[in-house]
Write a structure and sequence with these properties.
The complex is a heterodimer. Chain A is an all-beta fold. Helices cover 0% and strands 57% of the residues of chain A. Chain A is built from no helices and eleven strands. By secondary structure, chain B is mainly beta. Chain B is 0% helix and 50% strand. Chain B contains no helices and twelve strands. In chain B, the strands form three sheets. In chain B, strands 2, 5, 6, 10, 11 and 12 form a six-stranded mixed sheet that branches. In chain B, strands 3-9-8-7 form a four-stranded antiparallel sheet, with no helix packed on it. In chain B, a hairpin with a 2-residue loop joins strand 7 and strand 8. Classes of the chains: A mainly beta, B mainly beta. The interface between A and B is medium-sized, with 26 and 25 residues.
Chain lengths: 114, 117
């Protein structure tokens, strides 16, 4: 148990569906992240939030829409996804917005787009 | 440009054997940080170690040890007397100086470690 909880753990959605991934941390951290992990590829950083403000968007397609209502919660809203978007989506948090600090990860949401 | 290379895609050993996971990095920064994370089948990445570029002292934590050598730009990870529970994917990562605007972690592709009973 890392203190970062992601729901759902598994999600199958059609290309016309709209769904949301949820991440919650009870560690009192100020920074939260969304990563995409595809088979045989390095982790891809998608979005970064610091004190609820988005500070990074790594050229992520607009069909992925993040939301951070408070420092403890992070959402990833999905719509009109493509099959190549199937991957493990990991949420992480860290005390500060600097990657020289330890990041805590959730168990991820395994997304399958059909 | 920054880069992390984990050349070993998959390693399989028998329990109780020692195993070393290689990590080679590239960076132009003089201050940087290196990390190792473990990803068990449950999915979450678990932090194992962080090392800054000014500290080349090797680290030992139980059965785990890390060998940092700036001369070869390597940060290798050794598990002594491996156990089945060590089976996981292990990631090496690199970050730049603190407070650098380019603060993103650069990840290696990971090494899948299989420990057979």
């Amino acid at each position: 148990e890392t203190g970062v909880t992601q729901t759902p753990r598994h999600l199958v959605m059609g290309m016309t569906n709209k769904k949301s991934l949820k991440c919650e941390q009870h560690l009192g951290h100020n920074a939260m992240y969304w990563y995409k992990q595809s088979a045989k590829k390095p982790l891809e950083l998608m979005f970064v939030y610091n004190f609820k403000e988005q500070t990074e968007n790594n050229s992520v397609p607009s069909r992925f829409s993040p939301e951070c209502p408070n420092s403890s919660h992070l959402f990833l809203h999905l719509h009109t996804l493509q099959p190549e978007d199937s991957a493990l989506y990991l949420c992480a948090s860290s005390q500060e917005l600097a990657d020289n600090t330890e990041a805590f990860f959730g168990q991820g949401t395994r997304l399958t787009v059909v | 440009a920054q880069k992390v290379t984990q050349a070993q895609t998959e390693i399989s050993v028998v329990e109780k054997e020692d195993v070393t996971l290689d990590c080679v990095y590239e960076t132009r920064d003089t201050t940087y940080y290196l990390f190792w994370y473990k990803q068990p089948p449950s999915g979450e990445l678990v932090f194992l170690i962080r090392r800054n570029s000014f500290d080349e002292q090797n680290e030992i934590s139980g059965r785990y040890s890390w060998n940092f050598q700036k001369s070869t730009s390597s940060f290798n990870f050794t598990i002594t007397a491996s156990q089945v529970v060590d089976s996981a994917v292990y990631f090496c990562a690199l970050s730049g100086p603190p407070m650098d605007s380019n603060y993103q972690l650069i990840w290696g592709a990971g090494t899948k470690l299989i420990i057979k009973p």
